[in-house]
Amino acid sequence: MKKFLRPAATLTAALIALGSLAACGSSTTPTQPVASASAAASTVLPVTTNPMDTTGTKPGLTVTGAKAEDNVDPKTKAAVADRLQFNLTNTTTAPITGLDVYYTMKDAKTGKSESYYQKLDGLTLSPGQNETIYFDNGTGPGHYPENKYSLYRNSTNKVTITILADATGYATATGTATKAPGTGEKLD
Predict the structure, then answer these.
(1) How many structural domains does the chain have?
(2) Shortest CA distance to 165 belongs to which of 141, 188, 181, 142?
(3) pTM of the predicted structure, to 2 decimals
(4) Domain range for residue 111?
(5) In 3-state terms, what secondary structure has residue 181?
(6) Deepest of 5, 52, 110, 112, by most Cβ within 10 A of its Cβ?
(7) Residues near 185 by Cβ (< 8 Å), separated by ≥ 6?
């Protein structure tokens, strides 16, 4: 009898291991980007609609300095690798929380477009604060994940990026950044 129990136990262990391996290979990728800067770039997928509530009317949130190439670190003034980068500013006398961003990339030649949504979890803009936001898969405050397979990263044509930033109750802030024709941009 021991002969038959041992192969059955081995077979059971193999089936459990096989099931674990299959689960590792399956994908449960979220439909919205993960806010953590440590999220893998592959988890950032385009969205089909803007999930933001853009009915707010209170002024005070602005988008300025939007860039998609020839980027500069705002603190050191040193050139940094190209990325979608912009400043969010609170021009009110109260803190702004619940910030999120929806941006659309459009290829000027093909007309193809794709959109992305990102909650800016953990970000509070104090009165008068100006915060630089980066979509670069970097770490640290202000850095959020990006899709390395996006139009921005892979189209050889001009790509225009329209940015909408929102916070509950506030009027939606807008900005635009442009990538010139070509890919493989380097530190400028």
Answers:
(1) 1
(2) 142
(3) 0.76
(4) 41-179
(5) coil
(6) 52
(7) 69, 81, 82, 179
